[in-house]
Amino acid sequence: MKRTKVVDALSCTDFGKDINVRGWVRSHRSSKAVDFIALNDGSTIKNIQVVIDPTSIDAEILKNITTGACISATGVLVESQGKGQTSEIQCKNIEIYGLCPNDYPMQKKGQSFEYMRKYGHMRLRTNTFGAVFRIRHHMAMAIHQYFHEHGFYYFHTPIITGSDAEGAGNMFQVTTLDLDRVAKSDTVDYSADFFGKKTHLTVSGQLEGELGATALGAIYTFGPTFRAENSNTPRHLAEFWMIEPEVAFIDQQELMDLEEDFIKYCVRWALEHCKDDLEFLNQMIDKELIARLEGVLKDTFVRLTYTEGFEILKKAQENGIKFEFPVAEWGMDLSSEHERYLVEEHFKRPVIMTDYPSQIKSFYMKKNEDGKTMQGTDVLFPRIGEIIGGSVREESYEKLLEEIHNRGMKEEVYDWYLDTRKYGTCPHGGFGLGFERLILFVTGMQNIRDVIPFARTPKNAEF
C-alpha cells in the first residue's frame, strides 16, 4: 500500500479507509486492553496516534516497538476521540523496519541543548530540531520566492576564490600541496598548487555578485560562506549560509526600503507557513516568540545614522546604563550589546543604522561627502543585533582604487573588480543577510549552532 505522510493523514477526513503510515516511534503506552503508539515521520511537529488491539498483533513485535524504533503501520483511519487530534489509526498490521535499543541517546525527555549537540546525527529526530529545520526549509523557500517575485536573478558565485571580499584576511586556505613536504622557508611556491596561486574558501559572494548586477540589473546569491575566525560564541560559525542581493541603479533610501521589505516578507512567510512549528517553539523554547515576530511586521523600522545612535548610547551610559564594552569615542565599532540596547530598550523595534565611520567598514562602500563616513545600511534586530549588513557600493574607479591603496591591499588582486568601475560603471548597492541569524530570530533558539544541521566551529568538524 502507498504510504501516506503523517501531515496528510492528520488533515484527512476520509474516515473508514485503510491507510499506511511510516515513521519513528515517539512513545509506546501499553495496557492489557489497548496499546497506543505516537508516530512521527518528520512531515509535521504533530504525531499520529496508532491504536492497537494487543490480541491482534504478535506480542514479540509489540515488545520491540520502543521509543526511536522505525515502523510501518497499516489500518483504518478513524475520527479521534482524544483531545488535540482529529484522526487516528485503528491498526491492523505493523512491520518493524528498525529496532531501537534502550541506549538510544534521544530517548529521554528534557535533555539540554548542550547534550544534544554531542549527538548531532541523532538530534534531528527530536521535536525541537524537527521544528527548527522545517522552518529553515520554509525560510529558504521564502527567500527564493521573494527575489523571483521582484525580478532578481539567482546568481551562482564561486566557493573557491583568490580574493577577500571583506579585506579582513580571516579565510580558510585551499591547497593540494603536500603540507608535510612543503619547503621550510618564508614563502610557498603556489605556482605548483592546483590553481597556480594562493586560493581560499569564500567569505562572501558580494564582489562577484556585483559583476552580475552590473550586467543583469538585479541578482541575489544564496550559498555557503566561510570565516576562519576563532570565535567560540553562540553567534558565530565557521561555515554558514549567506543571502546577498546586489542591485544596479539603487540609492541608499531605496536600499533601506529593500532590506525592510525583504525581511518582513520572510517573517510574514514564517507566520503563515510554519504555524504549528512556531506554536510548539513558542510553548517550549520562547514564550514571546510569536509576539516578537508579529511586532516586526507592526511598525516601520527606525532609521538613524551611526552618529545619532552613538549619541543615544553615550547619553544612556552617562545616565547609569552599564555596558560590558563602554561607549568610548566616535568611530568605535558598536558591539551586539549596543545594537540590542538601541533596538530592545530605546526604540523597542528594529533599527536601520546608516553612515558608519569609514575606518570600521569595508573598502568597497561609497563614502559620503564628509569624507569620514560611508553609506552603510545595517539592520539591527532584537535578540540578534546586526542581522543585515548592507551599503551603497563605490562606483568611482578613482575613489575605489584610492581606498584599496590606503588600506594596503594589492591592486592586482582586484583588477577584475576595478574593471566594473572602469568600463561603464553605474550606481549600485546591496546587502548580506546571515541565513542562520535569520533562523535564530524566527525560531527563538539561543545558539546559532542549533539552527544549522551540522555546525562548523573551532575544533569541531564532525560528519
From TrEMBL:
Its main location: cytoplasm. Transmembrane segments: none annotated. PROSITE patterns: AA_TRNA_LIGASE_II (PS50862). The keyword Nucleus does not apply. Its EC number is 6.1.1.22. Gene3D superfamilies: Bira Bifunctional Protein, Domain 2, Nucleic acid-binding proteins. One of its GO terms (molecular function) is ATP binding. Pfam families: tRNA-synt_2 (PF00152), tRNA_anti-codon (PF01336). One of its GO terms (biological process) is asparaginyl-tRNA aminoacylation. CDD domains: AsxRS_core, EcAsnRS_like_N. Keywords: Aminoacyl-tRNA synthetase, ATP-binding, Cytoplasm, Ligase, Nucleotide-binding, Protein biosynthesis. Belongs to the class-II aminoacyl-tRNA synthetase family. This is Asparagine--tRNA ligase. It comes from Prevotella aurantiaca. The gene is asnS.
